[in-house]
Amino acid sequence: MSDQNRIPQHVAIIMDGNGRWAELRGKERYEGHAAGIEPVRASLRAAVRNGVKYLTLYAFSTENWGRPQKEVDSLMELFCQSVISETPELVRQGVRVRMIGERSRFSEKVRSYLARAEEQTADGKILTLILALNYSSRSEITRAVRKIAARAAAGGTDPAAIDERTVSEALDTAEYPDPDLIVRTSGECRLSNFLLWQASYAELYFPEVLWPDFTEAEFDRALAEYARRDRRFGLVK
Length: 237
Ligand code: FPP
Known about the structure:
By secondary structure, the chain is α/β, with parallel strands linked by helices.
């Protein structure tokens, strides 16, 4: 195990490769997403065991609505089923569930299931699990700009006083620290509209493994890779 100082406080994961995993096995795409639940459990276990405090998972982007309706419906059902079935274990592990993204586009059912999971896990102190749902960075930043502009127009904010903190505090992630490590599985090396503002100084790691094959050992490998990185935040040593 690496030294405690080198454990990232916040890990964010782009869970990619479910479709390819399913195709390789002659299965339907939704079966790939269903197979993506065990790696979520494994990542949570590994994060808790290593003392990571925040874990953000990119579960559904604003662009994902453009997928075939059958796939979108099966993902919605998977979110509902899994947040309900996993909640007791999340409570046991001291995990608090939160969400970023715009929930207004979800059905009443999805919204109520998510709200229930948030309420029932609200006392979790060990780790905060942040689900990015109907999330995209550009949409989040646009909403933040709108909020700040409305306050300025109402005379509550002096435009000259707007600084980076003003922007950070208007984002969905206002309460959380920036991610230290962003992992994207399946060998794709891009951020795809995920935490673009917050990723400014994040370390990026792109393992080849497809998300359904991601294990606790893979999570540990990501942390080991992070521990080797030399973070300078634009400064010199
Ligand atoms: C990307 O793989 C994956 C998704 C769009 C969905 C991820 C969702 C889950 C794993 C379910 C998690 C559930 C909870 C409650 C956290 P892809 O379909 O783009 O894969 P491909 O690039 O191989 O086609």
